[in-house]
Write a structure and sequence with these properties.
It comes from Abyssibacter profundi. By secondary structure, this protein is of the alpha+beta class. The protein is built from 19 helices and 22 strands. About 30% of the residues lie in helices and about 25% in strands.
């Protein structure tokens, strides 16, 4: 069971084994919080244990971690489910090359939560880590499950148990709403081939290898999935349930051997007859505390895990992953991924699972009568959801053009909305207070560093009881300048003092950067910034020592100098004295190579 802390789980899954470094990672998620993704490379590369709020505190730190990770991490997310960030940040533009919106082929949701990472080490075969989760890459705080396994990358024949895992990754480029760049397409293709040849051992307490099953990639809705043909005991857990999936599972075992765990509102929505085949029905206890950490607001709480336990003969098979107990999941309308493991009932059966602690978190389900349906409210909710779908399907696009020292950012397209719904939008690099009605085309005048492909939308119903809908779309762009990222860097390093301070921190790697950010004093406080003195030979000695012992550590500094020199602006940021020092270092490097 995964605790309700998304960042901790995400960081641990991407941290390299000892002696290895992260080479690449491909993540799939139904929903995505951009701030979580923004902080992830810094947490992984710096080995920092800070919370999200602390990691987001210094944009220069975030920028360097994103520049160092390059395009190692790619996220594929349902086109409708990128969350609106709490704060506007120009740095979100750095994520555009790594975030890819996708659409399920059969009209449902793109819902798998699969993380695959490759780690490399000199003279050793690459390692692969695969996690099949019920958790999205968001701030959501809920109880989740995952099956994680590591294996040495194999070559040769296809591994049958990993076939569906490889198939999901191989299909990702064709599901994207925009053409996938070559660098990302090649990375995903390579990952798919590696996964398909590799067997992933089951966790301790189980035998053999993990079996992966994907849903929703074949054309058309299928007959409901049947996990096993027979079982003597069943435990089914999911936050969302409906009659289609429950009817399939009710064919297994006897009533007194069937347990169902779900959310109160999901169970209340079922007819009483739908629960009659289940002898044991429970919900998450209200006494379970779910406190927020790091000041991060709780978007969701309670049960979010998806799990099936099926006992058969002396064995038990567990299925975990993204599939709820719904028709959309079981018939292939959604794209889903489940992983299964099999072991002895005596060691890993349903009773052992209950004893491990889940039982103490649950209480018997007691039906709460639902209020009589308000037809007007139901209609208003449907109209708002339909308006969101209309915006998503309207082929909106972004065009930009230079406007003196700034840029004109224009949202183009055509959207027809009902009178009962109002939609506002804004580039996420700007404050939500700058939002404007969705009457197209509409333009903003913004600096180069704020140009973005991410657009936030706020949909509001005229019905007072309907909750507003917020979401972000990543849209096609035209006319963006090539030096856009360099301008973001220039806004963060805007003086020689800031450059020298950051340079000294860079000499310590990302770990040094974190220490620097935690301990630094802001300008204007009267405290020393402890800047390196250009007249002192210490800086030159440090750079030459690094050139001799670990020249690769100079690469971030070389990249920083190059990018700052490429950015526009008349203000001198890199001191001339330092450029003289840097020439000596580069001459030393050239002599060593020769």
């Amino acid at each position: 069971m995964l605790p309700p802390d998304s960042r901790v789980v995400a960081v641990e899954l991407l941290r390299a084994p000892e002696g290895y470094t992260l080479d690449s990672a491909v993540l799939t998620s139904y929903s995505l919080d951009l701030e979580t993704l923004l902080a992830l490379p810094l947490a992984v590369l710096s080995q920092a244990d800070a919370g999200i709020e602390q990691l987001l505190r210094d944009p220069l730190l975030l920028l360097e971690s994103l520049r160092e990770s390059g395009q190692k991490i790619h996220v594929f997310v349902d086109e409708s489910a990128i969350a609106v960030p709490r704060t506007e940040r120009p740095l979100f533009s750095m994520l555009e090359a790594s975030v890819h919106s996708v659409k399920a082929p059969n009209g449902g949701a793109f819902h798998p939560k699969v993380w695959a990472a490759r780690f490399v080490a000199p003279g050793r075969k690459p390692m692969l880590r695969v996690a099949v989760l019920s958790r999205n890459l968001t701030y959501d705080r809920s109880w989740d499950l995952g099956i994680v396994s590591c294996a040495t990358e194999k070559s040769g024949a296809e591994a049958s148990s990993s076939r569906d895992l490889a198939r999901l990754f191989a299909t990702l480029p064709s599901l994207c709403t925009e053409s996938l760049p070559t660098i990302a397409s090649d990375l995903v293709s390579s990952m798919s081939e590696s996964l398909g040849r590799t067997l992933f051992p089951a966790p301790e307490g189980f035998t053999g290898n993990i079996e992966y099953t994907v849903f929703g990639l074949d054309s058309g809705v299928q007959s409901p999935w049947q996990p096993l043909q027979s079982a003597s005991r069943v435990l089914a857990m999911a936050p969302f349930v409906n009659q289609t999936a429950l009817s399939v599972l009710a064919q297994l075992g006897s009533k007194d051997k069937r347990s169902l765990i779900s959310r109160q509102d999901s169970l209340d929505a079922l007819p009483e007859s739908g629960l009659e085949p289940w002898g044991d029905v429970r919900v998450m206890s209200e006494s379970i505390e779910d406190e927020s950490e790091d000041g991060v607001p709780t978007e969701l709480s309670g049960l979010h895990a998806k799990l099936l336990g099926l006992e058969h003969s002396w064995d038990v098979t567990w299925f975990a992953g993204s599939s709820n107990l719904t028709a959309a999941a079981f018939t292939g309308a959604n794209v889903e991924m489940m992983a299964s493991v099999t072991g002895r009932r005596s060691k890993s059966g349903i009773e052992r699972f209950e004893e491990a602690g889940i039982g103490r978190m649950l209480e018997p389900y007691r039906r709460i009568e639902r209020p009589v349906e308000d037809a007007a409210l139901t209609k208003a909710i449907e109209e708002l959801e339909s308006a969101k779908r209309t915006v998503i399907d309207s082929a909106l696009r972004i065009a930009t053009a230079e406007a003196d020292t700034d840029w004109q950012w224009t949202l183009e397209g055509k959207v027809e909305l009902p009178d009962s719904v109002a939609v506002h939008h804004w580039p996420i690099s700007l404050s939500a207070s700058a939002s404007r009605p969705l009457v197209l085309p509409v333009s903003w005048r913004i600096p180069t560093s704020h140009l973005t492909a991410f657009v936030a939308f706020h949909c509001k119903s005229s019905h007072p009881k309907v909750e507003d809908i917020h979401f972000v779309l990543k849209l096609p762009t035209q006319g963006f300048p090539e030096n856009r990222v360099n301008q973001v860097l220039r806004t963060l390093i805007d003086s020689p003092e800031r450059f020298l301070q950051f340079l000294r921190a860079l000499l310590g790697g990302l770990e040094g950067l974190v220490d620097w950010a935690d301990g630094r004093n802001e300008p204007g406080t009267g405290e020393s910034w402890n800047l390196p003195a250009l007249g002192d030979e210490t800086l030159l000695e440090d750079l030459l020592r690094m050139a001799s012992r670990d020249p690769q550590r100079l690469e971030p500094i070389r990249r920083l100098i190059y990018d700052l020199e490429q950015s526009d602006g008349d203000k001198l940021v890199i001191p001339r004295e330092f450029l003289h020092i840097w020439k000596v270092v580069e001459r030393s490097l050239a002599e060593r190579k020769a």
